[in-house]
Amino acid sequence: MNKNIFITGASGLLGKALVTQFLQNGFTVYAHYSSNTPIQHPECKWLQGDFSTINSIRQFLEQNRSALETCSYLINNYGPITSKKIPELTSEDFYFDYHHNLITTFEITSFFIRYAPLKSVINVGFEFASQLKAYKQILPYACAKNAVYTLTLSLKEAYPHIRFEMVFPSTIEGAALASKNAKTISPIDMAKEIFNIIDASGGQNPF
Ligand SMILES: NC(=O)c1ccc[n+]([C@@H]2O[C@H](COP(=O)([O-])OP(=O)(O)OC[C@H]3O[C@@H](n4cnc5c(N)ncnc54)[C@H](OP(=O)(O)O)[C@@H]3O)[C@@H](O)[C@H]2O)c1
């Protein structure tokens, strides 16, 4: 069985734990980073890419096509959080968060649907991404993650042979941005949770 996986944002807090989790379970891991290659995973296949524009995402995908088109598993983990009070927000803030969360996820997933033997996609949201509620500090990020959730549900309908899931982590221990009373989860526990979703069905869509 093909156990090749591609993980975006793999040099970050949750990304590093995901790399460890999947390597330990016999996966061949293609891990994306932007500027910091973590040295603690020399056996991992690191792929450098900047996702700041649609063109740079497409360039990354084309340059690494021969590796990426072998992957049956995809984790769209990349999705930077931003924080700004409502009165200070500008339209650019919404552009930024929609680009780095929704557009990046859509562009990468579309590439995999087209070229890879895709079995399973996990999109990483945040604790409240499936709920409609008001936000004081993270409105554009929350809107963008909600849009990723809608995308996930829609792709699930459109491609029933592929398993699409979204996970909703609470604040990850060690994160730079956290509200005072936030529920937290360790990166390792979150990575295990994501691994179990993929492992539970052997990556096959059970529906
Ligand atoms: N942190 C939390 O408390 C929390 C809570 C709930 C959900 N989440 C979600 O969990 C996921 C992982 O979050 P995290 O906190 O683990 O992330 P993180 O530690 O901030 O990691 C950021 C990742 O993005 C990469 N990156 C930065 N700029 C980039 C660019 N221009 N183009 C491409 N890649 C770039 C970084 O690469 P380099 O380091 O190599 O530059 C790194 O791999 C995200 O989807 C986030 O929204 C996080």
Question: What can you tell me about this protein's structure?
Answer:
- With 207 residues, this protein is α/β, with parallel strands linked by helices.
- The protein has a single domain, classed as Rossmann fold.
- The protein has six helices and eight strands; from the N terminus they run βαββααβαβαβββα.
- The strands form two sheets. It has a six-stranded parallel β-sheet with strand order 3-2-1-4-5-6, sandwiched between helices. Strands 7-8 form a two-stranded parallel ribbon.
- β5, α5 and β6 (163-167) form a beta-alpha-beta unit.
- α2 (54-63) packs parallel to α4 and α4 packs parallel to α5.
- The model has no long low-confidence stretch (mean pLDDT 94).
- It binds NADP nicotinamide-adenine-dinucleotide phosphate.
- NADP nicotinamide-adenine-dinucleotide phosphate binds next to α1 and β7.
- NADP nicotinamide-adenine-dinucleotide phosphate binds at residues 9-15, 33-36, 49-52, 77-81, 124, 126, 169, 171-172, 175.
Helix content: 40-55%
The secondary-structure element order is EHEEHHEHEHEEEH
End-to-end distance? 20 Å
Query: What sort of overall outline do the alpha carbons produce when their principal axes are compared?
Result: globular
Overall tally of structural domains: 1
Give the low-confidence spans: none
For the biggest sheet, the summary is: 6 strands, parallel
The main sheet orders its strands as 3-2-1-4-5-6
What would the CATH topology be? Rossmann fold
Question: Which cofactors or ions or other ligands sit in this model?
Answer: NADP nicotinamide-adenine-dinucleotide phosphate
